[in-house]
């Protein structure tokens, strides 16, 4: 119901009342849309928060909830690694997204420049890692099977929001891969092996192991010239 302002109310108070009403409504709109901010100039969404169009994976393991992709569950052990893969093939790009992990020992990550292994649940390629001692590390999934570069965890851990949303920024340009979590750079790695492909798919992982969930949202990309 509209606010009734007495005719005796000074004009300055009327203006203040209208200003506060507009301001409050703008703040409410911001809160409503906070989980889906505007896409930055030059970026496009890879996931619209409503459907997994353009992605493929085991949808008994992945689901959509609160405009996010959720991998895993908190009731039972996860038998092995699972990946939700985007159909696009990307070379040089900047990828931005938000994530949160639920569960005491949850591990997950974002595959980049990767491929599915034929007739297998695994993917092969670089992974921007999450969880445990791998926060913010660059791991070589199913290939060299080792951490290629990683941060000083003592400096990174105070910046992480446990069981809440965090920002991941991933930039691939030629042989150079850079990672940031919540604005803190965790990796600046240059590939020296000329046989390693510098193109491939992006995928979201939930790692096999104890019960846990990996949540991903606001996934957007800018391809570099």
Kindly list the characteristics that best describe this protein.
225 residues; mainly beta; 2 domains; 8-stranded antiparallel beta sheet; 7-stranded antiparallel beta sheet; 15 strands; disordered N terminus
Q: CATH class of the largest domain, anyone? A: Mainly Beta
Low-pLDDT runs: 1-9, 11-33
Q: Which CATH architecture of the largest domain would you pick?
A: Sandwich
Count the DSSP helices. 2
Q: What is the succession of H and E elements?
A: HEEEEEEEEEEHEEEEE
**Structural class based on helices, strands and sheet pairing:** mainly beta
CATH superfamily of the largest domain: Exo-inulinase, domain 1
Give the oligomer, counting copies of the same chain as homo and different chains as hetero. single chain
Q: For the report, how would you describe the main beta sheet?
A: 8 strands, antiparallel
In whole angstroms, how far apart are the ends?
A: 53 Å
Specify the helix fraction band: 10-25%
C-alpha Rg (nearest Å)? 21 Å
Strand content: 35-45%
Morphology: globular
What is the β-strand count?
15
What number is the mean pLDDT? 88
Break the fold down into its secondary structure elements and pairings.
Elements: H1 11-32, E1 44-45, E2 55-56, E3 62-65, E4 68-73, E5 82-86, E6 93-102, E7 108-116, E8 123-130, E9 138-141, E10 147-149, H2 153-156, E11 166-173, E12 176-181, E13 184-190, E14 201-206, E15 212-223
Antiparallel strand pairs: 1-15, 2-5, 3-4, 4-15, 5-14, 6-11, 6-15, 7-8, 7-14, 8-9, 9-10, 11-12, 12-13
């Amino acid at each position: 119901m509209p606010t009734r302002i007495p005719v005796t109310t000074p004009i300055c108070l009327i203006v203040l009342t209208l200003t506060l009403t507009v301001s409050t409504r703008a703040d409410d709109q911001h809160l409503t849309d906070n989980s889906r901010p505007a896409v930055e100039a030059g970026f496009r969404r890879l996931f619209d928060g409503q459907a997994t169009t353009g992605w493929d994976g085991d949808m008994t393991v992945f689901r959509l909830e609160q405009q996010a992709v959720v991998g895993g569950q908190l009731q039972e052990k996860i038998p092995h690694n699972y990946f939700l893969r985007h159909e696009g093939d990307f070379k040089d790009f900047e990828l931005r997204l938000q994530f949160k992990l639920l569960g005491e020992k949850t591990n997950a990550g974002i595959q980049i420049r990767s491929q599915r292994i034929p007739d297998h649940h695994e993917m092969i390629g670089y992974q921007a890692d999450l969880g445990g001692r791998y926060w913010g590390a660059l791991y070589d999934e199913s290939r060299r099977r080792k951490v290629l570069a990683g941060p000083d965890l003592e400096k990174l851990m105070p910046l992480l929001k446990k069981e809440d949303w965090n920002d991941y920024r991933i930039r691939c340009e030629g042989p150079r891969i850079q990672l940031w979590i919540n604005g803190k750079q965790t990796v600046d790695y240059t590939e020296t092996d000329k046989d390693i492909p510098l193109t491939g798919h992006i995928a979201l992982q939930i790692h096999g192991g104890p019960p846990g969930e990996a949540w991903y949202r606001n996934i957007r990309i800018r391809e570099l010239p």
